[in-house]
Design a protein that fits this description.
- This protein is of the alpha+beta class.
- Helices cover 50% and strands 11% of the residues.
- A hairpin with a 2-residue loop joins β2 and β3.
- It has a four-stranded antiparallel sheet with strand order 7-6-9-8.
């Protein structure tokens, strides 16, 4: 199997995005963000195509090269919800820059060094608020509202929760979401360094139609007449259409950048395809199954002798042309009458061995002999049958190849994420 390769692009060689696939939105806030992640999985190459043109002949990119671009400070970004968090970031960054300048003057260090002091930037302690610094990514603060956004507002606005319960919910949500957010932030910082501002703006413009399509899906799902009504509805959930737009662009940028770094074969060797087919043969095979109907005869005042005689009479009626299902409905209790005796599809191993042997030996339409039990008599008939079969390799070859290619892409993407994470400087309140 050809090895997967991961190529880190030069500073001027960047990615593109290739559209968005719409998917359903299950609920609000976290589910809305999940909707955008699902929307990415079909066509991740749109952002890569837009930005790869930077390295095309005759096109001079203006991105700046650094020896270690991961640690180069990224441009400040706007918090999606909490405007106070933006002010807090500017204060922290300003203090840090003053400290760096003083240290460089005193120690004679190189002011052009891409490494920056984080002495004035600290993780928050105490109760979680929207302004809490929950992570430092290459020295840049990540605030609680960057990660949880509307979740915090909904939790804080719920009068039924105690302060302790609010903090517990926020910390639980933070544990679930912060690791992925930090990974994405490392990538976002690289994008901001490697991709010129005008190119980023161009990508945003190219993504806007897909975002509008996604918003339209949400609007219809939430049964809102206009986008304005949707925005008002979302404001009650602690978010807005504009905030969703920013999240959407962020996810697209991250996914497009990752796609630009991943190099996997376009084809899979036949030997590997066959090996996967053989290892997953059960997935392409169907076992023997029968669809079974049953009639139950309960003993009356005369006991089991009468029940056995009634069962013989039923079998005689069916042999003379009466439909098995009609008789079953006639004798069934009212609650089960609509089923007309149907037990559904039965696979081997689902019944007692003696009963299984008897049922699977019946041909379609054949009626069994009475099965006498201490408290009842049962009569069975097979109404349909599926013989065991296996789908030929040729019919699933393309499907297997697509499965393996997707797996290789995801493995390569995970490796790229791990590489970027290993080169970054990350502190979180979860550590």
């Amino acid at each position: 199997m050809p090895p997967q390769t991961i190529t880190l692009p030069a500073a001027g060689s960047v990615f593109s995005t290739q559209g968005v696939r719409e998917s359903s939105v299950n609920s609000l806030v976290s589910q809305l963000q999940q909707h955008f992640r699902c929307a990415l999985r079909g066509r991740r190459a749109l952002v890569a195509a837009c930005l790869l043109s930077l390295s095309a002949p005759g096109c001079k990119g203006r991105s700046v090269k650094y020896d270690n671009p991961v640690f180069e400070p990224a441009p400040p970004r706007r918090s999606l919800i909490n405007k106070a968090a933006d002010e807090e970031e500017r204060r922290l960054m300003g203090a840090a820059m003053e400290t760096d300048a003083a240290a460089e003057t005193e120690n004679g260090s190189d002011p052009a060094s891409p490494f920056r002091s984080t002495s004035m930037q600290r993780l928050s302690s105490g109760p979680l608020t929207g302004n809490s610094v929950v992570a430092l990514v290459n020295g840049h603060p990540v605030f609680l509202d960057d990660v949880l956004a509307g979740v915090r507002q909904m939790v804080e606005n719920n009068p039924q929760l105690t302060d302790q319960q609010r903090q517990m919910i926020l910390m639980t949500q933070l544990k679930n979401r912060l690791p992925k957010y930090v990974e994405d932030e490392l990538i976002v910082q690289q994008v901001k360094i490697k991709v010129p501002k005008e190119r980023q703006d161009m990508i945003r413009e190219s993504l806007e139609p897909k975002f509008q399509e996604t918003v339209e899906v949400i609007r219809k799902k939430e049964n809102k007449a206009t986008v304005q009504e949707l925005d008002e509805f979302l404001s009650g959930q602690g978010t807005s259409v504009e905030e969703l737009r920013q999240s959407f662009y962020r996810i697209q940028m991250v996914e497009g950048y990752l796609s630009s770094l991943v190099k996997v074969p376009e084809k899979v060797d036949r030997e590997e395809l066959l090996r996967y087919y053989e290892d997953h043969l059960r997935d392409y095979s169907s076992e023997e199954k029968v669809r079974v109907a049953k009639i139950v005869v309960r003993p009356g005042k005369s006991g089991m002798v009468q029940a056995q005689q009634q069962a013989d009479d039923i079998i005689a009626r069916i042999s003379q042309g009466a439909a098995f299902q009609d008789v079953a409905a006639e004798l069934a209790e009212p609650v089960n009458r609509e089923k007309r005796g149907d037990m559904g599809w039965i696979s081997r191993g689902a019944l007692a061995p003696e009963l299984e042997d008897m049922v699977f030996a019946l041909a379609v339409g054949q009626v069994s002999a009475p099965r006498i039990l201490p408290d009842r008599v049962e009569i069975y008939s097979v109404t349909d049958r599926h013989e065991p079969s296996t789908i030929p390799f040729q019919q699933v070859q393309a499907e297997i190849e697509e499965t393996l290619l997707n797996q290789k892409r995801e493995d390569a993407r995970r490796e790229v994420r791990d590489q970027i994470r290993s080169r970054g400087s990350v502190q979180t309140v979860l550590e």
